[in-house]
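## retry 2 of 3
previous attempt timed out at serialization; input unchanged, resubmitting
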Amino acid sequence: MNEMEGIIFQLITNSGSARSHVFEALEYARKNDFDKATECLEAAGNELVDAHQVQTNLIQQEASGQSVQVSLLMVHAQDHLMTSILAKDLIEQMVEMQKQIYQISTSK
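## retry succeeded, writing output
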């Protein structure tokens, strides 16, 4: 595996871990365990920060005039990152909605 493939797999790994954490957060929220859901969302956020840093480094490399080869694997990694970011954004909202549902249902 060359250096670029290692960087790409790091993007995929961080993004995949983030996505796993956000769906785990949703499961905890459905069980009304909002503390655990929050922990999972924070873990996802940390993974996404790491992935975004890798992406930023690649962008800076290209901006400085160094060629960055765009391969199908790179496109796949970027797809993983973007879908993980979207999943986190949506599931954060779903956790908040579940919290509100729980509060309404227990206030009677």
